[in-house]
Amino acid sequence: MISKLNNRELDQKIKSLARAENKLLAIVIEHIKEADRRKLYLDFNYANLYDYLVKECGYPGGSAQRRIDAARLLAIEPKLKAKIESGEINLSQTTLLQKAFREKDQRVTLEAKRSLIAKICDKTVNESQVIIAKELDLKIKTTTKETYQKDGSVRLEFTFTKEQYESLQKAKDLASNATQTNDLPTLIKYLSDRFIKQKEGSTATVAVKKQVLQRDQCCQHKDPHTQRLCGSRWNLHIDHIKPKWAGGTDDIENLRVLCQKHNLERYREQAQIRRIPNLMKSKWKNTQQCWQKF
Ligand SMILES: [Zn+2]
Known about the structure:
disordered C terminus, binds zinc ion
């Protein structure tokens, strides 16, 4: 029973299983190498090894590709088997190597490939990446790529300079208590929220806020078509009628009460105006007319 093991036993067990897993992995790679050499997949009516591993052997796509990458490296460096077995090299590293060789259009000599395998032994994936990039003189990528996805999420690919990245890492460490994660998008969101709050947050005094609450008592959002007042008394926020970024003040005349929903809606609307500088002028006019109503 696993739950009956004490901590020392559990630790020993996990380590011995990990060793066994590496050993088994090395054997799997060796067999895939042989299947590749024989073109075994043709016997099973597959056009390539990848399809055979995914459709016939049940490997997820990424796992299949990593095993193929390792098997093809093993074909040119027999010592690789022992290194995978001992855990000196893992599949993330062999895949990094193969990706780099492909980027170089395979214009890498056999000796250079073998020497690189030796050089990344016992290195972390990040360290290996740097070693490989230096040895093969890989191009430094700096272009930013934005991919807009169907659920509204955006996939970004960009390059930080060494200094930018160090500063980001430092921020990550300092924020780790609050964010509870190493996830980069979460960190950037956290830092952005802090910045926005600092720039736009209400600096009105508590006394002024109290006065606004007493005066308005409920959400002052008016439906633009029916002019009906929202009137919600839940989760009330103090909103700047003329935003602070546009020079709005903390005077009581420039403040009003909004519910959470309408506060958020207004925030989004403002964020949009600010994001599109070209449209700003026309929207600006409308917004100003809006303000005059209050
Ligand atoms: Zn409301």
